[in-house]
Amino acid sequence: MVAALLPTPAGAQSSSPYHPLAAGERVISGRLGAAHLVHLPSRSSQAPSAPVGPVHPLIRPRSLTAPASSAPAGPTSPETTVKAAPTDQTLFRTSALSSAAIPTKDTILEPSVSNNQNVVFYTANWSAAVSTDAGATFTYINPFTDLPPAAAGFCCDQVTIYDPHYDITIWELQYLANGVGNVQRLAIANGRAGVAGNVWHYWDITAQDVGAPAGHWLDFPRLALSNNYLYLSTNDVAPSGAFYDETLLLRLPLSALANPASTPTFTGFGSTIADVFEPVSGATDTMYFGAHVATTMFRVYRWAETGVPQVAPNITHPAYVDENGDGLCPSPDTFNMCGRSDSRVAAGWLAGGTLGFLWAGKQGVAGTQTFPFPYIQGIRITADSAALVDNPQIFSSNYAYQYPDVAVNAVGALGLSLVYGGGTVYPTSAIGIMDDVSPSVFSLMPVRSGDHGPSNNAWGDYLTVRPASGNGLTWVGTSYTLQGGTAGSSVEPRFLWFGRLRDDPFKPSVTGLGVAAMIGVSTGTAATADFTGPSGNAADYTTSINWGDGSSTQPGTIAGMGTAFSVTGSHTYTAMGRFTVATTVSDSFASTTVTSTATVLTDTSGTYRPVVPARILDTRSGAPFGPNTTREVQVGGFPGSGVPATGISAVVLNVTVTNTTAPSFMTLFPDSALRPLASNLNWTAGVTIPNLVEVAVGLSSTNAPGYISVFNNQGNADVIIDVEGYVTDHASSSGPDGLFNPLVPARILDTRAGPTPVKLGAQSTLPVALLGNGGVPSGGVEAVVLNVTVTNPTVPSFLTVWPDGDPKPKASNLNFDAGQTIPNRVIVKLGMGGKVDIFNNAGTVDVIADAGGWYTDATAGGTGLRFQGVTPYRVLDTRPMTKVGPYATPIQPQSSIPVQVAGTIGGGATPNSAQAVVTNVTVTDTTGPSFLTVWPDGTSRPLASDLNWTTGVTIPNLVVVKLGSLGRVDAFNNVGTTDLVVDVVGFYI
């Protein structure tokens, strides 16, 4: 249905500016004492009921009358008809609060609400409740007993509001009067945790605090906010309760209310001229409030945060029919919802520089208009000039409209809650929106139809709408109806969260997707996606996991607390390959969908095939790599490399950078994949540095197989790449040839050792026997993994390692400068007699070699592990600014740290079934000449090293290491301190 704010012609307008307060209006000031702290008991069921029924009189029994000379009434306006609201208008939540949450009810329910994201605080006349799942469920709070007593005990009239600037929820409670007067209590909870944990601090305000005579009491509170202040509107009621003596507006600083240790001051304003004050929603640095002074006169006030209250001249408008507990809107069972309503101002707002106020009018004749049922009358006024804009109305000839409240959202749109009923309609709750979609009328949507009228002929006193916290574009509100009976026990309170579909406040956001295992041909692959669900209720979200092979898990299993959730699922692949896993999360209100993806490799593991080293790239004869440059490089099928074009899953390369012009790093990764957070080489300007790289291959930009991508970060660098071998894909890996057997590192060569140490000379070759040495068996071996280190070189030179008996290839494994100590990993095929040759080009140099594993040959019965390459991902970075993993400090001298590898989450995770891992290990920020040893956790540190360096250098090395029993390796630093970065490039299973 659509409810127009139907304008009637404007009456006399005043252009007079605001001026100081008039006679009969006064300024109030005071200070509250120390706050009281209270931690409310947790409740999940109904406590003993409080007295049922109103415990205070109707607060506005006196009538406002038009003066003798009234402004002319406008012509009859077309009635507001019940129609369907636009489909974009949505009730994101409409929850009935059970009798366990709101145990004490009456048709004078007076519900109020506030929310701090998913934490909702709901009050009714004699009950309160908390929700931590955006209003899906509520837990009861007993205002009679959970807070300490005051005056003659708790009464009624609770109101709540949330201030996002100071992150506080404000709860106003009214207490009964004793011989001195009564108390209105302001209770404050800080943050969501304060409301959810029932932790409040409070101050009490008495009638005497605001200068009222003894015996008077404060009644009918209303709350509103500006940027820095809370405004409390209330009435000073005489002891007889027959009428109110004065209407009041108090202002308190929000900063002081947020601080339990403060003693807030307050200022205030009182008037015996105006009717009940209504402060506006949507105020910023100036609060506006309004009240009747007659049925044809409205008075508006403004109060700047840095100023004093001011009043504008009375604004004359067409007369409305004053309602004073005499409205008539009997429903089909003859009971009268309008029998207690009155015309006090019920709603106020400031949007787009225009003030608006709404109140109830009675059935009857106003000027030339006839209203068969009570209706809603309004006024709109320019905020700056206090000039009348129009007098909108919401009315019908078929039923009454009553008890409106309006709130302004973050973009100046209006949200409305009201009740309608009478004639053939039982009391029914509805919401409305006025915004860019419906700029001149409230588009109304029924919420809940009642099935009875109230046997006490009473409803009210008010409903509540607030701008919802969170994205600030929606609203929370209250309503109620009678279901199944005519008495208060049949009242059904409701919590409402509404707005436009486009502004979905519960839209989830996926914060990350991890694949917890990747080997899926014979074992399950698990995926876990973390997401934020703003409602805090897992039941509001549905999920699915698409595994990329045409199958999906739907729904996924959701778990979590607060607004942090995760969805998990598992799947067993029946085919091999690379698949994109996509996790989708949708909320059930607006069907808003977000998706997160990750690439998963099923079992593409293969066996290793060494080749005689062959050069496939040397930019020294062409163009160097420039800054921030990525090139794709063909490896599979490269002429003369010995690497086939198809049937390969990874390659082993020796990569050297030279002629470097700036400090930089280089990353090698599968072609067509996204560049990962990882590096293979790190250098400073001017250095020449090598590293062994084992990298999975991918498809090129033209969809050709067997390609890698090479990225340079800064400056220029020439790049030299020599291929050392390749890993077959799963389908090409039959037979025992090329299975890997990891070793605890063992030293097999050190030219510094022995009684007569001999350096390797210029243009000299040193044969090294490997079979039966350092844990390598005496037979069945095709290739060996070595860590080769040079030290004490006298001139710049390079080493080449190749199978004994083969011609020396045009390739290098280590390049070094005079005096440099530098290691590099070498995977080398064995030659004649199980030997390899090591050649030094110039000068003399000491050479150290440690064995880390070996590969089987084609001999029947060979056993071992198969290699699975992945897109590189980082598992450790000890630098505080780029921390990955549990450490944020360097490794100390003579110290070791465990590094968790198996089971970690990343671009591809290493499964717990992995037996060994291939990592790129980099040391940086080094403070002394030292070495690093990496070995399986749970075993003794061996006499071996993986990296060697001098003070201040950054140096990487490929490390192939067996995993310990917990999927961990240990890293030892010898001298000084060093930061450590570890990137996984593959693993063995």
Structure description:
With 989 residues, the protein is an all-beta fold. A hairpin with a 6-residue loop joins strand 17 (278-279) and strand 18. 57% of the residues are buried.
Task: Give me a quick take on this structure.
By secondary structure, the chain is an all-beta fold.
- Overall strand count: 67
**How would a textbook summarize the main sheet?**
5 strands, antiparallel
Oligomer: single chain
Low-pLDDT stretches: 1-14, 43-85, 517-522
What is the helix tally?
A: 2
Chart the SSEs and their pairings.
Layout: E1 2-4, E2 25-31, E3 36-39, E4 89-96, E5 112-116, E6 119-123, E7 128-131, E8 139-141, E9 154-163, E10 168-175, E11 183-190, H1 191-196, E12 199-206, E13 217-225, E14 229-237, E15 244-253, H2 254-257, E16 265-271, E17 278-279, E18 286-294, E19 297-304, E20 310-311, E21 315-316, E22 345-351, E23 354-361, E24 364-366, E25 369-371, E26 375-382, E27 388-390, E28 393-394, E29 400-408, E30 414-422, E31 425-434, E32 441-449, E33 465-467, E34 475-482, E35 491-500, E36 509-515, E37 525-532, E38 541-546, E39 552-553, E40 557-561, E41 564-571, E42 578-587, E43 593-601, E44 608-618, E45 629-634, E46 648-658, E47 664-670, E48 681-683, E49 689-696, E50 707-712, E51 718-728, E52 740-750, E53 764-769, E54 781-791, E55 797-803, E56 814-816, E57 822-829, E58 835-840, E59 846-856, E60 867-877, E61 895-900, E62 916-924, E63 930-936, E64 947-949, E65 955-962, E66 968-973, E67 979-988
Antiparallel strand pairs: 1-32, 2-16, 3-12, 4-35, 5-6, 6-7, 7-8, 9-10, 10-11, 11-12, 13-14, 14-15, 15-16, 17-18, 18-19, 19-20, 19-21, 22-23, 23-26, 24-25, 26-27, 26-28, 29-30, 30-31, 31-32, 33-34, 34-35, 36-37, 37-41, 38-39, 38-42, 40-41, 42-43, 44-51, 45-50, 46-49, 46-51, 47-48, 47-50, 52-59, ...
